[in-house]
Amino acid sequence: MTQRSEKQGIESAAIRSRNRFSEEKVAVIVFIIFALLPIFITGYPIYILPQYMLFGVLAMSLALLWGFVGILSFGQAAFFALGAYTMGLAMQTNFGVNSGYIGILISPLVGGVLAAITGYFLFNAGVKATYFVLVTLALSIMIEQIAVSQSDITGGWNGMYIDRMPLTFGTFGEISLFNDIPAYYAIFPVVIAIYVFVRWLATGRFGKILIGIRENEDRMTALGFNISAYKTGAFALSGAIACLAGALYGAHANFVAPSLGGVLFSTEVVVWVAIAGRASLLAALLGGILVASLSNYLSTITPDYWQLVLGIIFILVIVFLKGGVAGAISDLSKHLQSKVKR
Amino acid sequence: METIISVLVDATLITLVLALAAFGLAIIYGLIGVINMGHGAMLTLGAYFTWATTTAGVPFILAVILAALGVAIVGLLLEHIIIRHFYDKPFDTLLLTWAFFLIMTEVIKIVFGTDFRNVANPLPGAIDFGTIKIPAYRGAIALFSLLLIGATAFVFYRTNLGIKIRALIQNREVASLLGLNVSRTYKFVFGIGSGIAGLAGGLISPMLSVDPYIGNVYLVRSFFVVIVGGVGQLLGGTLIGSFFIGGAETIFALFSKQVFAQSIVFLLAIVILRYRPAGILKQS
Which end of chain B has fewer CB within 10 Å, C or N? Predict the structure, then answer.
């Protein structure tokens, strides 16, 4: 029943990729705009934008899972926070090389392994999608509680300070990332790289199999695909990306507190992705960036009402607009194209 | 010996309070299959209603009844406006009730503020049993929880209404063909479940500081109670699930910090959910 209702709402990503307004073209334009932005704007927006981009990556990690496989995780922020803590711990340790690099390398491993273990454990037994939501919700609470209770390691409620790493090039010297613009241009390419990588996976064989699982699990099983392995793989990938984004976020924000992994933030990510459109990676990325900046801007003006509005929009999207904004735009463009042809 | 008895008593009290908190969820999920993610917000709302009315001078028992009614009305509105259109899409009801949770939490913050609120304990003091002392209010709540679950079981297994609801669970189509008003029964169950959540929130409120997020942790604990106990097993399931979750938490809390103990229990519950998705007693 669930699968069918999901299917009705979401346009197949395969169809969308044939659209004239292809996601790649939009992505190129968007990335060029972001690349040029620091020339026109300075100050706070340029300082904060990399963090929002990483929120966007976090949203994308959820879209990969929710939009493509049809599995919803209420625990993405847990991985994000885990990444930030991993980065913080790495920066406190002397590895003999740039600790930041070690943090960046370790964090996706930590997130990927945790997700793989959780995923393998649950998917292998065919645990219901709704129960998976509850387990990931519990995961989120657990990460927050462990961060609070193990205060010797994590700093407890007070959070953990994270040094901002420099970019080192061995004997060729190093670039300090303490100024906004170098930090911006250090994180932005990573965001692009992650997007390109996930997009490549999602449009390739792996992504098609995931969509197949979303559309008809039984048939994919009959065709000989190992469903639980693919689901586990997708969840591990999603966890690894969320954790990497968290590590970079921690390094940029210089700080992580338990609430970063908490339930509220985890579900906020779900709201972003639902509104932006869960079947499109770019929409999720941009949705994360836009809604996070709007949240930050509006919550200084009207903190409570903004959350309220977000909640109401969330309901409206679920009831009327399954594909989110991206789905609506894609439907509209298809509608217009069919009119032109006639 | 004394510590063993006091741990046992503690575990029993926690079990019964937890059963009370989880019962509204068990009813809605077990009977009509809606995973009510708004359960936490309903508990919180019940607590705030109780705080508001007792502060206005209403006696505690009346305040709790009003809270239960208030939350039942909110639940009925939610059901009528949104949920009833999505009964055949369980995943959507999950998201929609979650949205309800988000909205309700914000409304609570706007209306009542974010400061900690305290509801005066209507039964201060403790009952002395010689070797151990039981806080009077906790004891009363535990007893009430047992009575409530017992009474519901009576309605469920010994009355006409109970037969209708059980018919509905067994086969919705046939029940409706036989003239049972399905949508009205669903509405009734949703209202009762919400009301009991509000009642639980009101009754729990004197035991803790009330803030807009008290329902969060109870939501997940309640779910694990229901799943560990077995969905649809209103009477035994809720008690067994609560005993497992609450009891394990009490025992682990002896060795580590309270919050950490809870994480361990969640982990255990996930393991059980994996191997016994139909409840701890049932082989799937």
Answer: N
